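Notes from the 1:1 (GR / supervisor)

We went over the backlog. Supervisor wanted to see one worked example end to end before approving the batch request, so GR pasted a single chain during the call. The sequence is below; no edits were made to it. Supervisor asked that the structure be written out right there so they could see what the output format looks like.
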Amino acid sequence: MTVSNVQLELIDKAKKYLQKKSNENVNVHSSGRCYFQAWGATPGYAILKLWQEGFKKIFYTFKIFCKDIISISSFYNYYLINELETNNKYNKIILSWGFKNRFLPDGSYQDGYFKINSKDTNGALWFLIYNDEVLPEKINNNILIFTKSKNIFKYNFFYLLKSIIKKIILSKFSLKRFFHKASGYTEFSDIVWNELKKFIKDDIKTIIMPYECQPFQNKIFKTCKKMNSNIKTIGYVHSFPPALPTNYIFRDGSPEKLILSGDDQYYCFKKYLNWTNSQLKILPSTKYSKISDNMSGYIYLPYALPSADIIIKSLQNLLTNNKEKIISNLIVKNHLLTENSKKHLKLIKKINNLLLKYKNSSLGDGYTNRLSIFIGSTSSPIEALERDLEVIHICDDPVFQSYSSELWPSIKVKKIDNNIYKYQLLKKGNLIQLGDSSKVFKEDYLN
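Structure output shown during the call:
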């Protein structure tokens, strides 16, 4: 079977699984077993691999499930920061991820997903799921920060035991329901919602967030609508969807309106992921702007590093078969979050040694390379295509990582070998409509 055929088969299996579990009154919105993220060691990923490769993945799947259950013990120390002024009135909630370097000295927050400042969103309450250990020195009074306290121990097994007992009771002693509730993803969904629900007042008309169909996001959307059926729930697909977009299959808890940024996304979500015309809206991207840093001339490493052997072997094949040896002049670019990773630094050294071996000094320092190579699970090749780059994608697991023209018709795919693909954009703007103004968020995203 071709890569695209296997991808479509897995999407179909995931849709049938979600429908079946929904009919059995399973919490498909917040279960980690129903979050079919096609990258990383998650329960949904493990199920996809089990469907793809069969019984030989059973022990891997069991290990992932056990880790997921144990991870419940790490969610014991979350809390909410900041006091809201009682006389402030809010009619919308913007939920996003928070980072210290995006807080400005005046206490406002410059969001990287919507490209808007918190002080420019009148009547909005910001709820940030914080990803840094150090807190900002000043926080405006329309911003809430949900974060972890600093503790000596990463895990609290007494908390795990209490949570397991509670989930057994809530499952009414049904093993099937307990299986879906006993998940770190479900636990996180519950604790986020328990803090956020205090602010879901009658005045709230809209809740919007950068959306990845994570269980906690679906929990928020589902329970908000239960509390107040008039609340408008809006999700924004901030990054181009993964090559295998199983996480975005429509299910209970999905937002009533989903903002996309390109025709190909609309095509894929409607044809394969069970979304309807009325639920989808195409708007220019707020994350991807027309003006950006140069992306050309690099070999991009991913956050989750695939097989180093496959990377080196694939690069060697490219260098050997490339007569002009332009690839040898590329610069390795590490992922921002893995700058101190020994595994990544070791691979960078190997790649640099390989590039040096094939170095083409005749090109000169002034040579501009319009090619970039992307490795592993990443949507960056799509952005690069929209920015007029030549794109090569090295995939250690093509079914889960490589883009296909069946799902994304504006991409022409050429298979160079088993792990190397070259992409070409057939029509500019079909994958991502690059944005150029923050006005689109206030004027169009919230309406």
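Supervisor's comment: The longest strand covers residues 92-98.
Batch request approved.
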